[in-house]
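Reopening this ticket.

The earlier resolution said the output was attached, but the attachment link was broken on my side. Pasting everything inline this time so it's all in one place.
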Amino acid sequence: MMKNIVLIVLMFAFAKAYSQKIEGIATYQTQRSVDIKMDSTSGMTSEMQKSIQEQLRKQFQKEFDLTFNAKEKVWKENESISTPQAPASGIQIMMTGNSDELYQNIHDQKYVQQSDMMGKLFLIEDTLEKPEWKLEKETKNIGQYTCFKATLTEEITESTLTSGDAQAEEVKKERVTTAWYTLDIPVRHGPDRFWGLPGLILEVNDGKMAMMCTKVVLNPSEEITIEAPTKGKKVTQDAYDEISEKKAQEMMERYQSKSSKKGETSSFTIKVGG
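Inline output:
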């Protein structure tokens, strides 16, 4: 009985979405946990490590806009105009403006992602895979919206590159993502790669990255335009992942070569995925 009621509510919500024009812009803030580990021979004091970790944490505090209508969305970072101050440790980390952009079309079941890898643009074109969300009973309010909880369990592969090792170590892990969506905005979009719930996703947390909606503007006075990015070398997702792994390996080999010439023995770890 309860299942039938839920289905009726969802059918009503989507009927409402398609019977009227729904488009808008949702703004999100993101945070990512950062953990820096270096051995005692690296020559880096604990104060310097803490400084780097804090700078990285702040660099990952970004703001994105999700522009959407009933069928399409574009996810793009807002450009930051702030200039970070040099820390007391003397080490400063600065990230250039992000040119990455994600377009999804849930009607045509496809996505196009423009991604910058070490100064080279790629255009990833592939098929959308529907996520297997589990709808939960919990609710909470985010701003003026009543939100429902959903979870997504995925098996991911984490590649770890450690200086001194010839090959990356791959470990399969289970990742549980928690999302909160609202039926008040009956579109199946969400921040970043997330989608597929019966309402706009306002909050996502996968254990490392958290994304929280801070503002929603529905049906703005000026009509919005949603277009897929077009710049970059066209590749599939699998091809891009392979190129990314090779670039990470090349970076590690260059570091090892320089360290061996200088007689250095310090080590560090790069983690990809997860």
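Reporter confirms the inline version is readable. Residues 2-272 form one domain. Confidence is low (pLDDT under 50) at residues 2-9.
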